[in-house]
Amino acid sequence: MTKILVVEDEAIIRTALRKLLERNKYEVSEAPSVREATSKFNLTDYQLIISDLRLPGAPGTDLIKLAGDVPVLIMTSYASLRSAVDSMRMGAVDYIAKPFDHDEMVSAVKRVIGKASMKGKAQSAPSDSKVTGMIGSSDVMQKLYSRIAKVAPTDATVLVHGETGTGKELVARSLHEQSKRHKELMISVNCAAIPETLIESELFGHEKGAFTGAASTREGLVAAADGGTLFLDEIGELPLEAQARLLRVLQEGEVRPLGSVESRKVDVRLVAATHRDLRALAREGKFREDLYFRINVVQLELPPLRERGKDILNLAESLLGRYCHQFNKPNLKLSPEAIQAITTYTWPGNVRELENAMQRAVILCEDDREIGHELLAIDLDLVLLDDTVDDNPYAQAVREAANNQPRHIDPSEDLSLEDYFQRFVLEHQDTMSETELAKKLGVSRKCLWERRQRFGIPRRKSTSK
Description:
The protein is an alpha/beta fold and about 475 residues long. About 45% of the residues lie in helices and about 10% in strands. Strand 4, helix 4 and strand 5 form a beta-alpha-beta unit. It has 19 helices and 14 strands.
């Protein structure tokens, strides 16, 4: 079980955080100060330390040096966001702003522990061109890895485009880690998460008295990323006024805080991400056209999960193993019906939705062998495979794949489920109706149609002579 040390002087917050983490199957110790944490516990016994920034006696950042290689996640109030950035410069693995919701904290913990685990594996295994944290060997993903490897060493501005949940921040982080700036900070900003009235101040900083409530001079996140990488997620949500200031940063290499008459030079590599069509927004006057052309130097397209073919099942099985380990469950397998559901569903929420489905299934599973499709709780018009039907070769292939048994549809070939589906449809669609094809394959007509769309096999219309 993963061990976490929580260092927080407010007993209510400390207790609530401990209960939250314990519900998620982590072993938690707690301390109210740095002094008690170091005297009472051996810091190297933990896989993660979560500490408040401001503590009695010594700040939480003191734990960074004391903990050695153990990652330290810093908690700070929203008003102290700049201090959190300083903490990262001192070696904190990440920070989370108070107040945070439970899902946000759990996601941050998983991300940090997962990154540490991947780092340990990378040190003991040969490196490859894949994106850290991303799983996939499909053609579209191989092309993505190749483009990242080419673009990362340069200082070119990159626009990452993809649907929500496809892993845009993972791509941005990989670009940073494979660049010459990897020893400097990568500052991540979700433009949709910061109120419009605060976004300019957060990004570009402000002088004392620049606006009501500006009690002191404050450096912005653009300046904090000087020498490193600035990742602007959901850049399409950036207000037009902030877009104009960002354009100046890119064109002139300088930033001017709100209320200041002087600018300062900054050396920042920008990686932007969006799920929206920025060109269309520019035509509508909702996004500056000059900024669009400035950031669209290199565009990386993240494929939606439904277009990644064999990766879907590989991802599901990898997540299944991760959550079985996290929740102390036996090594579960996916039932044939679950495999069919996973590979035929369109996954509108992409990898994030798949993660939630697998986590939910593992938590709720009472069987010690396999997970049924009903635990996935996905909206699929699915006809269950009938184990008693002998003439359903696709159902048999699914069952054998689930049991890791060899499948030889043809004596000379070992086909994947996707290969078999495509071959069966192409060979029989001229002699069978859609209803007959679906019945033979053990799926509904809707599932057949969705898989046709995924594999690019449109129904050929018969022509009368």
